[in-house]
Amino acid sequence: MNARKNLLDELICSRHSVRAYLDKPVPRSCLTEVLDVAARAPSGSNMQPWKVYVLQGELKRILVQKVCALHDELFLNPQKAQLYKPHYAYYPKEWVSPFLERRRENGWGLYSLLGIERGEKEKMHQQHRKNFEFFGAPVGLFFTAHRSLEGGALIDYGMFLQNLMLAAKGRGLGTCPQAAWNSFSEVIMSHIGASEHEKLICGMSLGWPDNAQLINSFGTPRLSADAFTTWLDDETIDG
Ligand SMILES: Cc1cc2nc3c(=O)[nH]c(=O)nc-3n(C[C@H](O)[C@H](O)[C@H](O)COP(=O)(O)O)c2cc1C
């Protein structure tokens, strides 16, 4: 029992977002296993809202080319960004404390590890652009849900995605969930052949981590349980 607990805790705590990958394919059987494990996630009324699109090879290459070109165009003409809308708001319209500080800490932490300084907009653009290359991963995933589904489906989806990332990690694979793609939802939906009844939830890079790359050493902090938990009784205090 303890060994099982330790294994699961180790898997959860060692997972991190992987942003550089080896140029090595992932067998279809391995992907199928990971998706089957992910689908054991619980969901309200067992509605299983997930729908997954797997991109590899030529189809992935064409989408990467298309979206990178768009991303570059928007860098030069930021006013055109309003033409590209996500299917739902992942991030808040207005960032308030403490989320704003955490977001900044995360972004600047990553950039400073890479030697990118404030004001170096071209370098930041190039780094952000790597999202749209799936960070060099051999597999790109897109997740959609039926447009009729509400916020509950997003809770269910989160569990599915975490399962997927842990099942992948357990097989030595790395992942990076990506909301970055959401700005280009319409372009993606038509490329992957999704129907008008679906909305894009997010994308994800998946593949074998390239641990020689500095970016994969990026670690992120977490608050401890006591910082975000209100104990309403003292009956469970140890001892
Ligand atoms: C739904 C979701 C979307 C995310 N989108 C992006 C993204 O577009 N690009 C990126 O580099 N990281 C993205 N991340 C990764 C987060 O930045 C990362 O999970 C967080 O900083 C904690 O780091 P860790 O995953 O290494 O533990 C996303 C994470 C989640 C859960």
Report the portion of residues in β strands: 5-15%
Q: Which ranges are low-confidence, i.e. pLDDT below 50, for 5 or more consecutive residues?
A: none
Tally the beta strands: 4
What is the CATH superfamily label of the domain at 16-92 and 132-219?
Answer: NADH Oxidase
Number of helices: 8
> Helix and strand succession?
HHEHHHEHEHEH
Could you describe the largest sheet, including whether it forms a barrel? Answer: 4 strands, antiparallel
Strand order of the largest sheet: 1-2-4-3
Ligands? flavin mononucleotide
CATH class wording of the domain at 16-92 and 132-219? Alpha Beta
Q: Tell me the helix content.
A: 40-55%
Structural class call reads: alpha+beta
- Euclidean distance between termini CA atoms: 23 Å
**Chain-averaged pLDDT:** 96
What's the alpha carbon Rg, rounded to whole Å? Answer: 19 Å
General form: globular
CATH architecture of the domain at 16-92 and 132-219: 3-Layer(aba) Sandwich
Write down the CATH topology of the domain at 16-92 and 132-219: NADH Oxidase
